[in-house]
Amino acid sequence: MTGTRTAIVDAVAAVAPLAFVYFSGWAYLSAYLGDFDIDATQVNISIATVLVYAFVPIWTLKVLGTIAALALVYLLTVLWRPLVKPARRAAPVMLLVGSVVLLFAVKESAGAEAYRMALLVWQGQKSISNMVVKLPDKPDQTYDAYKSCKDSRRLRQILGTNDTMYVLCRNEHLPCWHAILYAIRSDGTITYSAERRRQENGTMESCKA
């Protein structure tokens, strides 16, 4: 029984860091895409992409501070001998509470960082995207609107996956508040386009064209 319990604990200890990193990346990407009304569950995002973006919310003062605080509590519990035995009994509860606190910190941090990155797209500070789009066989208003946006250099990249690129066409007159979202497949076809509006109130003075 002791050997089985030890094996389970070792397995959990090995998987937990990877699960935490994956959750961090997914929390960030889902919040970021959500700022453009894109359902992250409908986007084919690779595990490698999720793991790369995971360090955006993790490498923040809020998350690092939470990790440091939890580590300090753990060290004090271990070093203070009178607490060692009670701490062992309460270890599952302490682990659960610490995990919940850390996940909430990651979620809040991910939301804040995602909002900051989405704002860069709306303000035109993200890289200009010039996706090659396949010429349609017959007149297409969506293609014409996309080409006009591309020619006027108003396209900004949101996110690229293995099969689809998501770009934002900023409005010529209200670039930070109104745009058209395009999803373009790797074969150059536009799968869909949709109008997007920022929900916040703002002034043109706060918009960097």
Oligomer: single chain
Rg computed from alpha carbons, rounded to a whole number of angstroms: 23 Å
Q: Trace the largest sheet across and list its strands.
A: 1-2-3-4
Q: In percent terms, what proportion of residues is strand?
A: 5-15%
Mean pLDDT: 81
Structural class: alpha+beta
Broad shape: elongated
Short summary of the structure?
By secondary structure, the chain is α+β, with helices and mostly antiparallel strands. The chain is built from six helices and four strands. It has a four-stranded antiparallel beta sheet, with helices on both faces.
Give your account of this protein's structure.
The protein has helices at 2-34, 47-58, 61-79, 81-89, 91-122, 141-151, and strands at residues 155-160, 164-170, 178-185, 190-197. The protein contains 6 helices and 4 strands. Strands 1-2-3-4 form a 4-stranded antiparallel sheet, with helices on both faces. It starts with a helix and ends in a 12-residue tail after the last strand. With 209 residues, it is an alpha+beta fold. α1 (2-34) packs across α2 and α1 (2-34) runs parallel beside α5 (91-122). The model has no long low-confidence stretch (mean pLDDT 81).
Keyword list:
alpha+beta; single chain; 4 strands; 6 helices; 4-stranded antiparallel β-sheet; 209 residues
Write the layout of secondary structure elements.
Elements: H1 2-34, H2 47-58, H3 61-79, H4 81-89, H5 91-122, H6 141-151, E1 155-160, E2 164-170, E3 178-185, E4 190-197
